[in-house]
Structure to design on (867 residues):
């Protein structure tokens, strides 16, 4: 069952065709990697689907429903969430508060002015559970701005995960992180995603990470999809090796 | 027909001054991404300095000699000098900080300058009307129009053209535009960004000061003119788009004409019409007509 | 942990006690002076909901203070009522209505545009106060007599000053305490957390499902109502309301005392407002160039003490009361 389908999706910035007539389908429950050199259109594609920018033309369908022009808020309600390449956290709030906020928002409780956030033990406990899953429960009271880069990347994902999405976009979850930290981060992410039955689309540059963790790989180049297959198929795909793999830095 | 010409000229007069002020604001924002809340006070400062200089030159005389017109730019130069001092001392320390602090410090500067002008020149308006009357007036048809106003309009036009040429036709203009589009890149290419910033800021202050200098013979320098001008300049950049010189020109023209129409037909709500226009533009096209989002 | 941290409760008890005992130990003039301080503190609470918690710096809050004040004056002039409760209700409703309207326009924008837009809108109100002088009394303003408190149960009697320095003071103190409590709950509620999230990262807030400008608008509305409430409490003290209270210079004072106290803490603005009140009272007699003094101090604060008084004390380990 297709959880997401884009049809002839287009977005241009001036002369540049960032996303060029892209037909992209994602099956429910799968974990796939989206690869491509800088400027290939990966982040733009995610921005279009998640609602950060509107497409010029084409269609986006989520679970059969047309969400092409839906608002960010509506898409989140439907179950689409994302993390960010450049970490986007609430730096002055505590690690715990970053996650509780996502939960409050999910539950529609951010409208409540006259109850104390600290009093909602169900939400607080759920946040702690999520943080434990991500290995961040040691420093829940620390402000998010004070964490290490690796921890911040994980928290960024945790916040998106706390929305209990059906489809989760992870934009370079290991970028800026030291090599030896990448595997533990990916282990956590894939474990969390699998246990929650979440469909995950991971944008990644690190091909080791991609080949290890993602059963399906979609390669983009200059705004269009170049190849789509298993790691073996991608490894042996002539255009992919020519355009992308040669330029990869592990 | 004659009255129509007079109205058009009045609108152009207002637009000239507004272009100078708003253009300066937009230029500074375009290059440095800061808005100086005290920008209007630099316009006022220019007005006061010029009025004071003319007053000193006149002494007890009541009629202006021709050479006194050369004193007009004095206010603009003074405003530019003030700007050259302010940027490195008050603004540069804050570029890395949250934008609130920029607003707060320029607001503090606004308060300081307001009282500084009161301190130096007292609470009463300063006039330079001798220059205004000295050029007499032109008669066409049944209407009389002060020649000085035409001079201001011409100055406004020359300033617009000169600025355009400066920004698009000179080496410095290239550097200015490069820095405004990508500060880091420009810096990596060897541009001394600090110097460009202080130069851009000085130029912007010069323009504001020039606006004050050229209009002071017509309307005098009075306390509070700075904040009034700031708010109107804001209306102009809302309409034309912050960061765009062409936008400042278009916005100034629109504000000039709408205001003139407003004063003529609905004198009561003159200010409100301008704010309504700004509000309308903000709602339809938040970046302004030619602004960068 | 529910409710305010123990440290807050620990020192707020003696402070409250001191405030209650005050009218009996100091001259009436001092009590009235502090009453002004408490009124400004309520305005500061409202102002800081926007600045410290939502990240929006308004230069036009005089509009709401002034609406609250003029609402009281209109209630006296047109409805012939003298009840403080009517004043408070009118003040909140009037400032709320204006805040709702202005907010619709302002909250789509941030930072610079927001700041100047708020300033411009409050100037429009100020100029309207002059234009419609037959309603507002123009530059002469409108007089407001001493009100009755608690539904007419408490009356001024003969000595107005005695009334202001005792019964009215306690009334303001009570309202102040309620305002502090209500604002405390609001900023510590899920809504308050959402505001802080918006302040910290607008994009992420959007992507967590918080509709940013909608929440900003509500914050704007609440902020305006608190400030309007302060305006309503201020008028009987002053006996008179004039257009000055709508002018941007008054907005500037609110910005100043919030920054002075420190806008990154809950109690900073309150302390700043009270201190500023004393500064203004004692310094105004010494110099005409009061604005310049404010400006210089503001510049120094921004350059040297961005956390304000309370924030700086906190960094020095003396008053560990945080925001979130």
């Amino acid at each position: 069952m297709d959880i997401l389908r884009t049809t002839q999706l287009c977005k241009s910035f001036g002369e540049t065709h960032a996303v060029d007539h892209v037909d992209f389908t994602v099956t429910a429950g799968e974990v796939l990697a989206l690869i491509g050199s800088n400027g290939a259109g990966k982040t733009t594609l995610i921005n279009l689907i998640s609602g950060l920018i509107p497409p010029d033309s084409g269609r986006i369908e989520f679970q059969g429903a047309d969400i092409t022009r839906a608002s960010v808020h509506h898409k989140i309600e439907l179950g689409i969430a994302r993390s960010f390449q450049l970490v986007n956290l609430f730096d002055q709030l505590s690690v715990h508060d970053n996650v509780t906020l996502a939960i409050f928002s999910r539950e529609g409780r951010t409208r409540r002015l006259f109850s104390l956030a600290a009093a909602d033990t169900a939400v607080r406990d759920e946040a702690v559970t999520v943080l434990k899953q991500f290995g961040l429960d040691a420093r829940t009271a620390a402000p998010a701005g004070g964490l290490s880069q690796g921890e911040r990347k994980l928290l960024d994902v945790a916040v998106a995960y706390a929305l209990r999405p059906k489809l989760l976009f992870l934009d370079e979850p290991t970028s800026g992180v030291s090599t030896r930290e990448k595997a533990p981060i990916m282990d956590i992410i894939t474990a969390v995603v699998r246990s929650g039955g979440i469909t995950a689309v991971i944008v990644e540059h690190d091909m080791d990470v991609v080949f290890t963790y993602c059963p399906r790989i979609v390669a983009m180049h200059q705004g269009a999809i170049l190849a789509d297959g298993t790691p073996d198929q991608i490894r042996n795909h002539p255009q992919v090796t020519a355009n992308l793999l040669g330029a990869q830095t592990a | 027909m004659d009255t129509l010409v007079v109205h058009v000229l009045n609108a152009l007069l207002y637009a000239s001054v507004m272009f100078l002020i708003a253009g300066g604001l937009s230029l500074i924002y375009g290059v440095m991404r800061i808005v100086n809340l005290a920008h209007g006070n630099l316009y006022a400062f220019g007005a006061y300095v010029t009025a004071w200089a003319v007053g000193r030159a006149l002494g007890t005389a009541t009629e202006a000699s021709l050479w006194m017109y050369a004193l007009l730019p004095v206010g603009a130069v003074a405003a530019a000098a003030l700007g050259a001092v302010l940027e490195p001392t008050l603004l540069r320390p804050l570029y890395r900080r949250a934008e609130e602090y920029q607003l707060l410090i320029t607001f503090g500067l606004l308060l300081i300058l307001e009282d500084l002008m009161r301190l130096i020149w007292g609470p009463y308006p300063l006039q330079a009307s001798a220059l205004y009357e000295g050029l007499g007036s032109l008669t066409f048809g049944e209407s009389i129009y002060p020649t000085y106003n035409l001079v201001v309009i011409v100055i406004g036009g020359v300033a617009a053209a000169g600025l355009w040429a400066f920004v698009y036709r000179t080496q410095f203009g290239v550097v200015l535009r490069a820095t405004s589009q990508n500060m880091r890149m420009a810096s990596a290419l060897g541009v001394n960004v600090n110097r460009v910033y202080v130069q851009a800021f000085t130029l912007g202050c010069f323009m504001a000061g020039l606006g004050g200098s050229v209009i002071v013979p017509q309307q005098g320098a009075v306390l509070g003119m700075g904040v009034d001008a700031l708010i109107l300049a804001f209306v102009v950049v809302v309409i034309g788009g912050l960061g765009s010189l062409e936008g400042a020109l278009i916005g100034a023209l629109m504000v000039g004409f709408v205001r003139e129409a407003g004063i003529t037909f609905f004198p009561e709500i003159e200010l409100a019409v301008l704010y309504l226009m700004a509000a309308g533009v903000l709602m339809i096209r938040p970046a302004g007509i030619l602004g960068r989002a | 942990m529910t409710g305010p941290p123990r440290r807050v409760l620990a020192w707020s008890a003696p402070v409250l006690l001191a405030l209650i005992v005050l009218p009996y130990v100091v001259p009436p003039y001092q009590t009235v002076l502090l009453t002004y301080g408490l009124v400004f503190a309520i305005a500061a609470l409202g102002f800081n909901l926007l600045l410290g918690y939502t990240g929006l710096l308004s230069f036009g809050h005089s509009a709401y203070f002034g609406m609250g004040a003029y609402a009281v004056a209109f209630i006296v002039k047109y409805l012939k009522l003298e009840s403080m409760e009517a004043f408070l209700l009118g003040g909140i409703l009037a400032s709320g209505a204006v805040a709702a309207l202005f907010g619709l326009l302002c909250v789509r924008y941030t930072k610079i545009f927001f700041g100047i837009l708020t300033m411009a809108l409050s100037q429009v109100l100020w100029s309207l106060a002059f234009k419609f002088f037959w309603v507002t009394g123009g530059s002469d303003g409108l007089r407001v007599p001493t009100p009755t408190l608690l539904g007419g149960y408490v009356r001024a009697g003969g000595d107005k000053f005695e009334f202001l320095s005792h019964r009215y003071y306690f009334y303001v103190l009570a309202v102040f305490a309620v305002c502090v409590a209500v604002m405390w709950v609001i900023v510590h509620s899920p809504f308050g957390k959402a505001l802080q999230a918006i302040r910290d990262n607008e994009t992420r807030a959007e992507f967590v499902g918080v509709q940013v400008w909608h929440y900003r608008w509500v914050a704007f509305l609440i902020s305006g109502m608190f400030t309007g409430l302060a305006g309503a409490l201020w008028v009987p003290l002053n006996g008179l309301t004039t257009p000055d209270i709508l002018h941007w210079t008054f907005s500037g004072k609110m910005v100043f005392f919030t920054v002075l106290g420190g806008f990154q803490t809950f109690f900073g603005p309150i302390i700043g407002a009270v201190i500023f009140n004393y500064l203004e009272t004692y310094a105004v007699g010494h110099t005409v160039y009061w604005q310049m003094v404010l400006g210089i101090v503001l510049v120094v604060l921004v350059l040297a003490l961005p956390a304000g008084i309370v924030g700086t004390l906190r960094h020095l380990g003396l008053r560990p009361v945080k925001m979130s």
User: Anything to note?
Assistant: The beta strands of chain A are 2-13, 16-27, 31-35, 57-62, 65-66, 80-82, 167-171, 199-203, 216-221, 224-229.
